[in-house]
Batch of 4 targets.
Target 1
Amino acid sequence: MILSRNNLKIALQKSGRLSEKSLEILQQIGMDFDRSKDQLFARCRNFDLDILFLRDDDIPEYVQDGVCDLGIVGENIIKERNAKVKIIEKLGFGRCRLSLAVPEGNSIQDLKELNGKRIATSYTASLNAFLKEQQITAEVIPLRGSVEIAPSLNLSDAICDLVSTGNTLKQNGLKEIEILFQSEAVLIQGENPLPNDKGKLVNRLILRFQGLLQAKRSKYILMNAPEKALPRITSIIPALSSPTVLPLATKGMIAIHSVIEEEVFWDVIEKLKMAGASGILVVPIEKMVL
Ligand code: PRT
Ligand code: ZN
């Protein structure tokens, strides 16, 4: 099998922290493909799409240069590579932050105290940009991996690395003193215009991503309430559109159906109960197209 010139191409991480979730998302938007280990690309059976499996560091450039039309990669890599790509959607996984950390017992508390110190990192571009912005002069020690052990080997006084749970820092006796930026996996697209047919195909695929993500962010809510509570309840639900209202067999009672955002979920439920709602049911939504 060879890559098709007419098919869309999406770049995913070959093997690593983002791989499984990236594949899962493609399956959730209906892409049907087989993936065997060590395969460099896979072809979808039901969409004109080829999936390329790459090292995450290469994904922004592949998309920027138009070798791939779309990609899924951490924002941290896009920033580090200074890639010219459009971020279409944040995907809600692979969350982490790029942070500065120093040994626990170290007196360094404040950023300014990093002046004249050595900082080990594999994020040299991001760190240099940050130091410049903060007007700090420090020596940046580039390391490929295992950055967290640099201070104990006396290679550096501080480190700048990705953190998610913070366990690695703790295990190595380091404390976080500053966050440079937060990051998560994102769907990216090149900035150059595509030929018409490819552009249409990309938009179809993006619409599917958006339908899935919108559904993940939302819940379908059903409840019963006295009819007279309706105005108060509708003012509480930040609904997609006006809620569905159905009469119940019990006189004066109604059922109300609506969609709420996951983020405000608990807050809204408490308010609804206070407004007289009962039998509140909340169900997940599989896909949602606005
Ligand atoms: O082979 P390839 O180059 O494709 O993969 P890779 O080894 O460079 O990357 P990989 O798979 O480790 O990470 C891929 C992406 O996952 C990163 O670019 C980030 O966008 C995202 N991500 C999310 C993380 C982390 N969380 C993370 N915790 N990437 C790395 N880490 C490392 C960090 O460098 C540190 O060593 O995990 C350690 C800290 O983790 P905690 O949980 O102990 O804080
Ligand atoms: Zn990498």
Target 2
Amino acid sequence: MIYSHQSGRGKPRPYVYMRILGIESSCDDSAAAYLEVAGGKVRRLDYVVATQEIHKKYGGVVPEVAAREHAATVPPLLAALADKVVGRPNGAMLGKRVDLIAVTRGPGLVTSLKVGLDTARALAVAWDKKIIGINHIEGHVYSNWLPAEIGQPLFGTKEKIFPALVLVVSGGHTELLYIKDHCSYKLLGATRDDAAGEAFDKTAKLMGLGYPGGPALSKLAELGDARVYDFPRPMIHDPHFDFSFAGLKTAVRYFLRDNQDKFGDEVFRRNVAAATERAIVDVLVAKTVRAAKEKKVRSIFLAGGVAANSTLRRFLSETIREKLPGTVFVEPLLRYCTDNAAMIAMAAHHRAKKGKFDDWRRMDADPNWELGR
Ligand code: KG4
Ligand code: ZN
């Protein structure tokens, strides 16, 4: 890692050059990435992900199985990443290119987290590198900094973006976070029961769409009419910023039970999917816009697996344009919405710039690590 000041005419500008290896294994995706940032621009980004298909047959993630899969997958994944970065599946050659190791330390499944974390700690010792433990949710936040093209200036280097608000919507989390500045968070609200992703997955399961059914439900919804059925929008008018989606799932369950005769009707299924999706999206958008107004933020980010949902993206951007003109709306590229290690490396880049390094001797997985509490 090089910190220097660019000389030349005018005021010297800080120049940071970092080459980061990112590792992520918090749930059921093993992922590794190589990120090179120089002078405020991404110079190189390579990433590999292995999704564990085995959980589909159980209808949910089985922690013990997930951890064993990570243990089997992480070494070959690092070899595959080395192949991309240095042209050979050679970890030692990759090590020579890396200055800093970034790894997810929580929240997540403790046994899954430990596979990635202990791999990262071992590499930090073997390669004698700096290391930073990253909060998985902070990683999702920084997926918004992953550029569409190599060489673009990093988001926020020219324009003022803070204070910002981020709506984190994933399989395990639904949160509104206030971001004062890089790496400085305050939790405004979170779900009291199911996360938005769980609401998608559980209703998808009720409709026989498999696991995780969020994307399938959303696809079915595209062809439906959301106005045909009116499902509950829990806590939408409450003054706080917490969420609750368990009641919605129960309402859909009873509705399907009472309409079993229509279950084979494709139009019925499309309309139920669309109405469920709209109920979830309406709550998310209403709370986000109200929090943004109250906290007077400059920008609003979307993050997490459910950020891939096209109805949420469309409704949120339209409502912001209409109700909060002038507020910047940022959404991650689709390829970085679900779990990946590029976002973990990007979060580490911003932590490293503030000198927030960890000591491999004192790092442990923190399955309940809450950001901004
Ligand atoms: O962030 P993520 O990859 O994993 C966690 O950290 O939990 O999020 C996965 C979640 C799953 O619940 C999945 O069904 C949901 O994101 N998801 C979607 C869509 N794509 C992924 N939900 C609704 N619409 C989508 N297009
Ligand atoms: Zn995630």
Target 3
Amino acid sequence: MGKLAAVEKKSVFMGRLAFGADLLEELTRICKDRSVSCGRVEAIGAVRKACIGYYDQDLRQYQFNTMEQALEILKLTGNVSLKDGEPMVHAHVTLADEKGRAFGGHLAPGTIIFACECIVEAFDGPEFKRVYDEDTGLPLWEQK
Ligand code: ZN
């Protein structure tokens, strides 16, 4: 059975990310700079190109799809927790091309910002630490 813990909203940061920067690296840097180790992120905007992952459950590894084209960020949503003692952003994105066709997946390095407006919420609560999970092969939150 899954376990959930109560968290409380501590602070909210909102702003625009830098043109040409790596989207996942920027979100991670913001969290590290503001000591956000438990929270959530969301964003909208556009990217110049994208790299998104799909976790192959049988092979237990990500396969990455790189799209060398301008895309809209319809929705980025994710969370912030601790991995190896450092804030880690885990985010998924839905992107759309010029025809409005949507693609999505696990946000990976290599997704380059054209314009991005983001909101980061920091929570107070117990630590969420990522540890290796035998069932999935993924670094998931420790079940206490
Ligand atoms: Zn993911």
Target 4
Amino acid sequence: MRILAIESSCDETSCAVIEDGTKIISNVVASSTSMHEKYGGIVPEVAARAQLESILPVISEALKHLMSSSINNYQLSIINSIDALAVTVGPGLIGSLLVGVETAKTIAYVTGKPIIPVNHVLAHMYGNFLQPTNSLLPTTYSLPAINFPAISLVVSGGHTELFLMKSIKDLQWLGGTLDDAAGEAFDKTARLLGFGSRGGLAIQESAQKLSTINSQLSIKLPRPLMYDKTLNFSFSGLKTAILREVNKLKEKNLFNNETIQELAYEVQETITDVLVFKTLNAAKIYNAKSILLSGGVAANLRLRDKFKLSILNSKLSISFSVPPPSLCTDNAAYIGSYAYFRGTPEDWHTITALPDLMVEIK
Ligand code: KG4
Ligand code: ZN
């Protein structure tokens, strides 16, 4: 089954063609991130306008892989080669969501194809079931060997959520952030450290430069809710703690490259320590056989390494899965995978953008 998937929940515009939930035939992503740089954060109006400009070129590019010399008409290639459409309906920015949702509905209307509404946050975890390829040749694709029950951690710009996955379809929400998401904590502290809107990636790059041997400062931040009994998270205190440290350093004229790297290092250690510790706890509670990581923050190299190392040290027999970094940040490939494994087609008349769509499925 081939699905044409569309994602436009925030500042990425993406379209993918996915076969049987696992095989990526194409996955095209356009981003307006750099356009928000001068404002120090994503401006919804700017993001929505960029979505409008990118959506048709991105869809056309994704479809090019399906076109043959005999059929070079977009509408015909959807009619002949696509079985269903999938689109992110929420959560996200209303202006951005509307662009993808209304475009997908229009395609459903003119081609008569079924359309599957997708929850963006739940879909992130299905990045773990994708197998990238650019080939249209028939190949045997098997699902990656993920054993259930699995614990799935989704860490993105707006969400930090833990789920129990009893099977590829059966999800149960276990806990989430009480305030800021992990990505939000990366983004807010990145701004305080002078990295503008480059967010978690800037923190990661700065922390990598730190020479821990010469480091003098040894700032230690608290690990919020790490040892409490729930599977909830709290990251909002981090930005206040960093602001305090930045102000102290500025007063002493010590706010320089070296101390910025130290702060970036400690922010990254704090966030990754909490995420890994609580996820492993959940895995122990639910006797999980695998841990799945996903969402934009899952691109963080320190987080990926820490998970692998902690699972190894725990001596638990748990496998670990995380998509390649390019499939962690927003893209339509996992939207198509989710739609295949867990989605249900709906009449296009009833599909609508839902900016506050919930993720707490019981
Ligand atoms: O999933 P995503 O692309 O968009 C949302 O659905 O929110 O996640 C974006 C988040 C941002 O907060 C960004 O700073 C963070 O993912 N991120 C990272 C890294 N790459 C992206 N955080 C830490 N380290 C990274 N390498
Ligand atoms: Zn996302």
